């Protein structure tokens, strides 16, 4: 049984005068501990599907199952990491990373210690009493990752979490997030516009067409790349070949919109 099953999901946004179908008949599976990417042109419904998996919106048709059980909007099982860190500026880093645990009524000495240990693990030991304005963009995004992981979600949903960062910080954070996900055995879904990022971070890549969003192709990342960290994968000869294949299909999809 697959960890995540998206079964014939379609979604239409309705207004008083229009109806826009963002997704049409999406079916896919994700295995436990796997990292997959949603890649495609703007307007292909990637973030809409991520929001459905996060139980933030209900699909017009179809269903999503986690570990064989249909998604429950009132008991979400996923952690969501966005483009912006959305740390509260008036709270310290420690207060920010413990906020989810506090809201869920799960803040104990043990869960607090685990969260602070994770903060140290990703290189932010000593900033607990700092405020977000005292940290760089990359450091704030790392703190946001800790806040997301602190509640021990079954799955991590990443909506272009590195896109607002400069290239060097982005590459370093890709490396850190990939290592952390592997270390903790987390299942993850990444939405990105960056082909290189999708290849470097993922086990599989789902390529979407737009208007409405459909899965046009599933790319398997070769084993020799999956075994490598994102930075090392970018240097491997197989990386360029896969990049060119995806680029060609993505270019054709955007040309034919």
UniProtKB/TrEMBL annotation:
Domain ABC transporter: 7-235
PROSITE patterns: ABC_TRANSPORTER_1, ABC_TRANSPORTER_2
Entry's Gene Ontology molecular function annotations: ATP binding; ATP hydrolysis activity
SMART domains found in the cross-reference section: AAA
Keywords: ATP-binding, Nucleotide-binding, Transport
Keyword Nucleotide-binding: yes
SUPFAM superfamilies per record: P-loop containing nucleoside triphosphate hydrolases
Protein name, entry field: ABC transporter domain-containing protein
UniProt organism field: Saccharococcus caldoxylosilyticus
């Amino acid at each position: 049984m697959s960890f995540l099953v998206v079964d014939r999901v379609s979604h239409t946004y309705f207004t008083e005068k229009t109806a826009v179908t963002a997704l049409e008949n999406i079916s896919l599976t994700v295995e436990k501990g796997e990292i997959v990417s949603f890649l495609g042109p703007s307007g292909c419904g990637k973030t809409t599907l991520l929001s459905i998996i996060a139980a933030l919106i209900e699909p017009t048709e179809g269903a999503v199952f986690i570990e064989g059980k249909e998604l429950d909007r009132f008991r979400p099982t996923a952690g969501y990491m966005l483009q912006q860190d959305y740390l509260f500026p008036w709270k310290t880093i420690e207060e920010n990373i413990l906020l989810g645990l506090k809201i869920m009524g799960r803040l104990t000495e043990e869960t607090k210690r685990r969260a602070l240990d994770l903060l140290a693990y990703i290189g932010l030991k000593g900033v607990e009493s700092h405020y977000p304005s005292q940290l760089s963009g990359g450091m704030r995004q790392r703190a946001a990752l800790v806040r997301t992981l602190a509640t021990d979600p079954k799955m991590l949903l990443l909506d272009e979490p590195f896109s607002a960062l400069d290239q060097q910080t982005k590459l370093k954070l890709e490396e850190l997030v990939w290592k952390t996900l592997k270390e903790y055995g987390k299942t993850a879904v990444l939405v990105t516009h960056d082909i290189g990022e999708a290849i470097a971070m993922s086990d599989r890549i789902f390529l979407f067409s737009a208007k409405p969003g459909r899965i046009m192709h599933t790319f398997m990342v070769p084993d020799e790349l999956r075994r490598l960290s994102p930075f090392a994968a970018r240097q491997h000869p197989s990386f360029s070949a896969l990049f060119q294949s995806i680029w060609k299909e993505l270019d054709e999809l955007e040309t034919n919109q």
